[in-house]
Amino acid sequence: MTTTKSFADDVVGSPTTPIVLLEDVGKSYGNIHALRGVSLSVRQGEITCVLGDNGAGKSTLIKIIAGLHDYTSGRMSVNGEERHFSSPRDSLDSGIATVYQDLALAPLMSVWRNFFLGNEITTGPFRKLASAAMKRIAQEELTKMGISIPNLEQPVGKLSGGQRQCVAIARAIHFGAKVLILDEPTAALGVNQSGVVLKYIVRARDAGIGVIFITHNPHHAYLVGNHFVVLKLGRVALDTHRSEITLQQLMTEMAGGSELEALSHELRSINPQVVVDPAGREPAARELADSEPVGGSTGGGASVGDGESADGGPEEQVRAVDMSADNEQKEQEGT
Q: Thinking of the domain 7-264, which architecture would CATH place it in?
């Protein structure tokens, strides 16, 4: 059972002290180990980027910090106190807000209603919605983040993907988030909208928020990240600071690192210029000759592009076998 003390009311004494600290955390589902020995530190005013391929354990890590699942081994501390969240409300009360890919927004509701969704301001014995106050606060908070939405009455579904992400981020910050978890915020966005979201992620960091940025994209991570963690099959494969790694190194590690290098050695014997001719009964490989003019050979002989190999070898033998089989079948039919 967790305590009810609100982390949003705590004052962290040092910016170098981790707000959230995971030490050798593991999560098992029966015999399946989703996470093993994962350590992660999140500090105020810092963007921690967690990268990994599908199945790396990113979603499980989010769910543990967000209070959806409890960890089965290791230790998780929030503001120096060991915690086991029993629900997402415990995590939220501790100042940890999560913005998932689906954003938890109601598309048909107005922007200001979405801003206060689940935290509505009410007045009087009949708990009437304080609409004017909520509109004013929503406008003020969005303006602080530099988000310009002229009409807060419009359905949030009419906003662009980047604007919806920014509304969700501003909402989390307004309600006291000290740690902001962003689950693939740029995954379904174009280049321009991704740039808008990245800009507001930096503004959240500048506001003193500890940001956990979950992403597949090392380019986006390196644009804004201070600290990088790469997960592979539930384990930490890389944990380093920005000053200790280049974008190329991060891309290599994200793409597979030593595994990619081993695969490259295996594929070196393969000629990438070879294509398959679908016209033949058997797939006939032919090599694209860079020196051959466009339009192929003009002579009477067979060219590489005619479905025959350059040396007349394997393909010619295949045709001979086919012709022999056809002649034999005709002879049997004649008899």
A: 3-Layer(aba) Sandwich (3.40)
Q: Which sequence spans correspond to the domains of the chain?
A: 7-264, 274-334
How far is 148 from 157, CA to CA, in rounded Å?
A: 16
- Give the tens place of pLDDT for each residue, 66-80: 999 999 999 999 998
Task: List C-alpha distances in Å: 195 to 5, 159, 223.
Answer: 37, 16, 10
Rounded Cα distance between 227 and 187, Å, is 20
Q: Work out whether strand 235-241 and strand 227-232 pair parallel, antiparallel, or are unpaired.
A: antiparallel
Count of other CB atoms within 10 angstroms of residue 191: 7
Which backbone phi and psi does 235 adopt, to 5 degrees?
-125, 155
The pTM (predicted TM-score) of the whole model is 0.72
- The share of the chain scoring above pLDDT 90, in percent, equals 41
Take residue 287 and report the two structure tokens written for it.
């090599």
pLDDT score for 302: 44
Place of tokens 């604007």: 163
